[in-house]
Protein: YcaO domain-containing protein
Organism: human gut metagenome
Amino acid sequence: DPENELTGSMLIDRQSGNEDRGICGLPFTRQSDNQTVYIPMNIIGNLYVSNGMSAGNTRNEARVQGLSEVFERY
């Protein structure tokens, strides 16, 4: 958090019903030095957003299907 806006209380897992356990972190392996680092689940859950998947018989057909999905949602 380069701007120091993130506090520990924002990372507590409230979805489990057990806030006493604190911050739920998932282990990842840092590629530069092979060390295990723990990333808070609340950060990871907010990073991945998808408008869905698309497929087609050709690349252009798949692009049209993907754009159609976006247009349908918005």
User: Anything to note?
Assistant: The first helix runs from residue 41 to 47. The two ends are 31 Å apart (CA to CA).
